[in-house]
Structures are given as C-alpha cells and as structure tokens.
Write a structure and sequence with these properties.
There is one protein chain. By secondary structure, the chain is mainly alpha-helical. It has one domain. Helices cover 40% and strands 0% of the residues. The chain contains eleven helices and no strands. Helix 5 crosses helix 6, helix 6 packs across helix 9 and helix 7 packs across helix 11. The longest helix is centred in the C-terminal third of the chain and has 18 residues.
Length: 303
Amino acid sequence: MWTHKNPIVRPVTSSLQAIARASAASGRALTTGAQATRAGLTSRAGRVSLQATFTAALVAGFLAIGHILAPHSGPDWAYGDLPEPIEASERRALALTPEEAAYLDIPAPGSTGGFEELNFDEFDGPTRADPIDESNPVDSVSDLDSWASSLSSLGIPQRALVAYGRAELISAVHNPQCNLSWTTLAAIGQVESNHGTVGGNRIKPDGDTLRPIIGPDYDEEGPMQFLPSTWAEWGTSADGSAEANPHNIDDATVSAANFLCSGGRDLTDPADWYAAVYGYNPIETYVRNVFARADDYGQRSHQ
C-alpha cells in the first residue's frame, strides 16, 4: 500500500495469508443468500455500510478495551500458530461459474491519500439502513452500472465501484456466512491505491489498470496491493479464466473478498472484521483508516 508503511510489520502479511482456510461454497445460498444480497445491494439504502450493523459495537468494544491500540489483546485464534495454507487445488475459487452468473443475472467483468483520525469521543453510533421492502422487488437487480452511478457522490470511480459491488454479490454466493459489504472493499481500495488511480493511473473498461501499480516497499501489486506471495495463494480470476491478474480490479476485489472471508469469518462480528482487516495489513493505523473510510462511505451512501 502507499501509506502507513512499516518495514518491519508489512512482511507479516505474507505469512498471514494462511490465517485460515477459505470457506467451502454453500450451494444452498445460491437462491436465498443471493436474492437477499442482490436486493440489498441494489437498494440505495440496503447493505449500505459495515457500520450499519456493528460500528457502535466496534467502537464501544474494541476501543474501550484497547483492542485496536493493543491488537495482541484480540481473539486468540488470530495470533500464534497459523493454520496450514490450503492447497490451491483444494480451494474452490470465489468466482461464479457461467451458469451461476447467468442464474443470478450478474454482469461479467468488463461490462458496460491519507485520513484524518476518527474522533471516537464524539462518535454517536451508525446510520441505520432502512428495512428492505421485500414486497417491492428491485426491477433491475443486475444493473451495477446504474447502482454505481447513483453513488457518484462518494467520489469512487464508477468502474471500481462496480467491481466492489460485484465482489460482494459473488461473496454472498460462495461465502454467505461472511456478510461482506462493498464498503469494506472500497475502503481498502481507497487506502491502498485510491481505487487504482494512484500516480495518475486509471482503470480501463475491461478492469485492468492503465499501468501496473507496484508498491514502493515490497512490490505490492495492483489496485488492492497484494504482496506477490499473498497473491500466489489467494489470487482468483473473477471471470473464471485460467490466470488471475492482480492489476485487474475485478480479479483483485474478488481475491480480497476471498482473503477477508477466510476461516468462516462473519464480518458483522467486530472481532472477525478486525481480524480480517488486520490480517490484510497488520498495522493499527491501517485498520483505523479502513474503518474510517468504510464508515464514511456507508453513511454518505445512505444520504
């Protein structure tokens, strides 16, 4: 990533790539989980933010007990001996098959920095999403471009926002217990590379960055800034092609979702959310910045 570098801590991420096994995909979620997620994502008020369900708990819990300030006081399973990495041949890719994509009517890829410290003392809780009216189904649940366009005020490039939203939909099918929100992916993308635009770069219609994005310290790759060793373990092609590309926003976000959801995490649980983001880059200020940006995206997308 391009901010908050720590030459001692950052390489730990390469070993944390094995923090847990990726969850096996649940076929039962193909209908119920996907329908709920599709309706929520395309609803402007639905699935609006990670803070909509647990921000207050995260602030009141972690900060009150010094969790973020002292991560060693976190869940025991997040530290110490790490599980053995799962063999690539045994891990199901997070990408949808063509049949699943057609069933869910999800468009294929290519269709169509620093932060102020969050003032936790003045934080009074999250903005709650309005309940989804299931009797009024969304007409164009697959129109991610329209959904992203409706959130243009967030300042996220539309092509990147489409990738974040699509990764959430795919994650809801293959890791339904994870409850991953696009806001977390967008926050990581902002902190890591300003959504693929760092250094005057941009994302092309096919999802590739105009030029490869290489981190200044450890040769991190792409808009989500994967270490090469981490990408070798977790890199996933979003369209099911043979080779995953860390410089493609679709592949990078789906792979990040795969990593964050590993080990059966439920990201509505504050401990799981913290462990997931801390595992992505084990620096306390990094977790704070991702939290602050995700919280900001969630609240403003609700306006």
